[in-house]
Design goal:
The protein is built from eight helices and twelve strands. The protein is of the alpha/beta class and 273 residues long.
């Protein structure tokens, strides 16, 4: 065997060089929280995470965890994942990207009622059945709940828990469905939830951004939303932020498909809704 043939034989016999392992992007998300995310990957935050992973050339890995108080501490900070979408931009316990959308609380009514209410100061509210999202602790409740209480609107208000019954599908849908069915006359709902579930109702619903947008200095109704990493993981945060900027037109189109009402203003500077 001549030298060339010997070298060729050795090369053929040698094991192929191992390929470098593909990068994995580990994301935490709620398995039952449409329109944001679910285990079937039908939410817009599922789609957003897939977009980011693809742009980074990474394989996407999900950690499913109900979005409850303490979920950041129990997941991201315990290193079960590296990234959480849908985080209030000013949340200080983790590192946040520049916002990828800004939305608002909205007033939801049946279109055929022609109420066209958007202000918490509308006197008609005193004679209507009102629905509002609640968290459970009055000290940290949703801004519309506080706005209604400040105006003495209590007896005609029905609360719907933000977290809902996690054992049932679509736990945040109830408040919008109650408007559609006529159980309540008007509901004050976080915009992405209202926009998504309104599109699924059999009757047309009207969605109007609430006013005032700032009900006093400590009660904003508009919020910036980001993706979050651990505070010390600046490298990943910067990478993800660059993707969000590069893909901004696609992200805006994605949000529109899900009915998310977008507010084009200066940052609200508020914590997560």
């Amino acid at each position: 065997m001549n030298a060339r043939l010997a070298i060729a034989a050795l090369l053929l016999a040698a094991p192929a060089a191992a390929e470098a392992p593909k990068r994995t992007l580990r994301v935490c998300a709620d398995p039952n929280n449409l329109p944001f995310s679910n285990a079937a990957r039908e939410g817009f935050e599922n789609a957003l995470a897939e977009l980011v992973a693809k742009d980074l050339g990474a394989t996407l890995s999900w950690t499913w965890w109900a979005q409850r108080r303490g979920n950041v501490r129990e997941t991201l900070n315990e290193k079960l994942c590296d990234l959480i979408p849908g985080i209030g931009s000013s949340l200080e316990m983790l590192g946040t990207t520049a916002p990828y959308y800004r939305s608002t609380y909205v007033a939801v009514t049946r279109a055929d009622r022609k109420l066209d209410i958007e202000s918490f100061d509308d006197e008609r509210l005193r004679s209507l059945r009102i629905g509002v999202q609640l968290i459970g602790d009055d000290a940290s409740n949703t801004p519309p709940a506080h706005a209604l209480m400040r105006r003495g609107l209590i007896d005609n208000v029905r609360g719907f828990m933000v977290y809902g019954d996690h054992e049932q599908p679509d736990p945040q849908a109830d408040i919008v469905e109650a408007v559609a069915s006529g159980e309540i006359d008007i509901a004050f709902v976080w915009g992405p939830v209202a926009g998504y579930f309104a599109k699924l109702q059999e009757v047309p619903l009207s969605i109007r951004p609430v006013s005032p947008r700032f009900d006093g200095p400590q009660l904003p109704m508009i919020f910036d939303v980001s993706m979050g990493t651990r505070r010390d993981d600046r490298a990943l945060r910067d990478e993800v932020e660059q993707v969000l900027r590069r893909r901004a037109p696609e992200i805006k189109a994605l949000l529109a498909r899900y009915g998310v009402p977008l507010i084009e203003e200066e940052a609200a500077g508020a914590s997560a809704p």
